[in-house]
Amino acid sequence: MEKREEPRRVRVGKISFALLSVLFVCCIVAQVFLAGLAIFVNPSNWKIHEMFVHLFEVIPVLMFIMSLVGKLPRWAVLHSAGLFGLIFVMYFTANITPVLPWAAAAHPVIAVMLFWLSVTLMKRAWRMTFRANLVENA
Question: What CA–CA distance (Å, rounded) separates 125 from 122?
Answer without folding.
Answer: 5
